[in-house]
Specification:
Number of strands: 14
Largest sheet: 6 strands, mixed
CATH architecture of the largest domain: 3-Layer(aba) Sandwich
Strand order of the largest sheet: 6-7-8-3-9-10
Radius of gyration: 24 Å
Number of domains: 2
Order of helices and strands: EEEHEEHEHHHEHEHEEHEHEEHEHH
CATH superfamily of the largest domain: P-loop containing nucleotide triphosphate hydrolases
Distance between the termini: 30 Å
Strand content: 15-25%
Length: 324
């Protein structure tokens, strides 16, 4: 019997996931590994395959190929065991607007076959945790977008899942509600829950994720921490600003690779923003007796990474060849 290539120690592990719909390949061989108690973000434009990956890993859709384990269970062999340890919140709210928030929660408790007294206790605790107690008796249709998303996640937690899939959980929310949702996700992870998050919001991935995978045209274009990904694209530099013209001229003469702004007395040096490069520059300034009035580090952000990796106008882009 062939040995599985998936990582049994990870909360989520997938190797070579493939999925097509007709002649359209949605996932073309995707590898994912999510350690327990972490946030993993799948970042990508519409149509990149993010939602399809979540549907496969949460047993809602079957893969055409590849292997996956979720919560230690093989996705193909033991799908019911996978369902027992996961929770899923999709792009669109699963809240029933015709009944109250509390009734939505109690319905979930019944679906999880919790004894009535336990179900009511769990529901009351979650309503309080998500600041929904005051609105519990109101029809969910009267809730704001942020309240509905909080209720959605609270419903997901009724079954006490160890792993949660959040498919674009803050889509359509105002900035305040989005930040509230981020805090909820952080608290879940602090409590030991593993989160796989899909998002189009670069700031969201940067704020929340321990690791980020950029999904483009059904493949992982790059994966790493936010800082690792930012170092993949050019444009990082150190900026030195002087008020003393003599100090500026000394530094400009010694740092030949720096670009100059003689009017503003500013030098820009290409840099990956690493501690090693910064320390070397500071050591040189000290040794030369040159004092810069301001030193700032500029590194590419996730916007730069996202556009560099998902620009489909040039399939031979050398950056893509490097990070795939």
């Amino acid at each position: 019997m062939p040995t599985s290539k998936t990582d049994e120690s990870a909360a989520i592990s997938a190797v070579g996931l493939r999925k097509s719909f007709g002649d359209k390949t949605v996932l073309g061989g995707v590898d994912i590994r999510v350690p327990s108690g972490s946030v993993f973000a799948l970042l990508g434009p519409n149509g990149a395959g993010k939602t399809t990956a979540v549907k496969i890993l949460s047993t809602l859709v079957s893969a055409d190929g590849g292997e996956a384990r979720v919560g230690g269970h093989d996705l193909t062999v033991a799908p019911q065991a996978v369902r027992s340890v996961i929770g899923v919140t999709g792009q669109f709210s699963a809240v029933d607007g015709l009944i109250t928030g509390e009734e939505n929660m109690l319905l979930m408790a019944d679906l999880h076959r919790l004894p009535r007294s336990q179900g009511r206790r769990v529901v009351a605790e979650l309503l309080e945790r998500f600041d929904l107690t005051a609105a519990a008796g109101k029809p969910a249709s009267a809730y704001s977008g942020g309240m509905k998303r909080r209720l959605d996640i609270a419903m997901t937690l009724v079954g006490d899942p160890r792993i949660i899939f959040l498919d674009e959980p803050t889509t359509g929310l105002d900035p305040r509600s989005r930040h509230t949702m981020w805090q909820i996700i952080r608290e879940l992870v602090t409590g030991g829950v593993t989160v796989l998050l899909t998002t189009q919001y670069l700031e969201e991935a940067d704020e929340l994720a321990d690791r980020i995978a950029v999904l483009h045209q059904g493949r992982i274009a790059a994966e790493g921490t936010a800082e690792q990904l930012k170092r993949l694209v050019p444009g990082g530099h150190l900026r030195l600003r002087f008020t003393d013209p003599d100090a500026y001229r000394t530094a400009a003469g010694a740092l030949g690779e720096a670009s100059r702004d003689d009017e503003a007395l500013v030098l820009r040096l290409p840099s990956d923003g690493s501690q090693r490069e910064l320390r070397a520059l500071l050591d040189w300034l000290d040794a030369a007796g040159v004092e810069a009035d301001e030193l700032t580090v500029h590194t590419p952000d996730l916007d730069d990474v996202f556009f560099a990796l998902t620009d489909s106008t040039d399939s031979t882009d050398p950056l893509k060849e490097t990070v795939r």
